[in-house]
Amino acid sequence: MAPLNVLMVGTGEYTTGFVGGGMSGSDKKVGVVGLTLFDLRRRGKVGKLSMVGTSGQKYPAIREHLQKNIAAVYNNLDVSFDSFPSDTTARDTDSYKTAIDALSPGDAITIFTPDTTHYPIALYAIERGIHVLITKPAVKLLSEHQQLLREARKHNVFVFVEHHKRFDPAYADARARAKTLGNFNYFYSYMSQPKFQLETFKAWAGKESDISYYLNSHHVDICESMVPDYKPVKVTASGSKGTAENLGCVPGTEDTISLLVEWVKRDEPGRRATGVYTASWTAPQKAGVHSNQYFHYLASNGEIRVDQAKRGYDVADDSQGQLVWYNPFYMKYAPDEEGNFNGQTGYGYISFEKFVDAVTAFKEGRVTLDELDRRGLPTLKNTIATTAILEAGRRSLDEGRGVVILVGEDGVWDLR
């Protein structure tokens, strides 16, 4: 079977490393999506690549950026791709439709665009028999999540939510060990990014989405995957404000959001647990690490603590004016001794390879959609509680009350 053709939807930092006319200043200076797919194409797992954004006039600068920072750095990495819309088009918000229509059933797309656009783009692709990888959060609304799940089954396509923390080696090991420690009791997590990142996010921060959707989605998903025999039943959220607004974000933009979630064991309602998930994008400008991240899991027979901020690797760099902690376990950008890309073991890379391998196996008839769900991959079915919690948290903030999560006998989820 021919390798998988992939359309990259979105041209920003995570896809290309290109932001606001130049290279990103974050830990994704050459992106993740494009670099990974270029290497998967070199390895024969991916075929034709294309990219779509809303402005074609960015492409000459993006191609120059990719040539300089990827093709000229690593051996044998072809950074070419077909682009939509044309380089002369200033703006076309429906260009994703043209790009998807150029694919064939059984091809795939990756979606790395603002949260509010995930649903219409994914639905358009699913209805045309295209397999889909969506960045987290999959969608903002529980109703949209369930609709995508129904349509994916109807059209027999695989939809994967890019929760790459599931493939972080420490988190993956912790998830496995948690299942040996008895009943879930308590989970606390924290994740933050420095304030300068709001310069990248200012176009949508507080308007189209919030810090909980952006960062809490990681640890809520990890917790959901650790305790599949529990379900969330109530969410109460609180948020702090002021700093993001002072940095130019729209009024009302929360700096930090905490979600207090009540969990209950599905077959033993008397057993209850508590989850607290906190996220902020107003950490100090020079925090030493781009993403501070840790969690504490407590069960009836033990506990787990994971701190992923420092990784035991720090660099003193005069150009940074500070001590910096790097995370090569996420994306390893340093080439090997022969100049080849050497980042295949990074969990950011692994997430995409898992998707490509799953789609290929499905197309070849070696696996079913139900079997992919049972593998514990971050599929739509396996991430529904995360979407329910995130939307319930947003509603709790907006309405000033706790929001109840219900799961009917028919398996349909609802918020009250």
TrEMBL record:
Source species, domain of life: Eukaryota
One Gene Ontology MF term: oxidoreductase activity
Cellular component GO terms, alphabetical: cytoplasm
InterPro entries: Gfo/Idh/MocA-like_OxRdtase_N, NAD(P)-bd_dom_sf
SUPFAM superfamilies, sorted: NAD(P)-binding Rossmann-fold domains
Gene3D superfamilies: Dihydrodipicolinate Reductase, domain 2 (3.30.360.10), NAD(P)-binding Rossmann-like Domain (3.40.50.720)
Entry's Gene Ontology BP terms: NADPH regeneration
The Gfo/Idh/MocA-like oxidoreductase N-terminal domain, residue ranges: 51-163
Any Pfam family matching the protein: GFO_IDH_MocA
PANTHER family: BINDING ROSSMANN FOLD OXIDOREDUCTASE, PUTATIVE (AFU_ORTHOLOGUE AFUA_3G11930)-RELATED (PTHR42840:SF6), NAD(P)-BINDING ROSSMANN-FOLD SUPERFAMILY PROTEIN-RELATED (PTHR42840)
Protein name (Swiss-Prot/TrEMBL): Gfo/Idh/MocA-like oxidoreductase N-terminal domain-containing protein
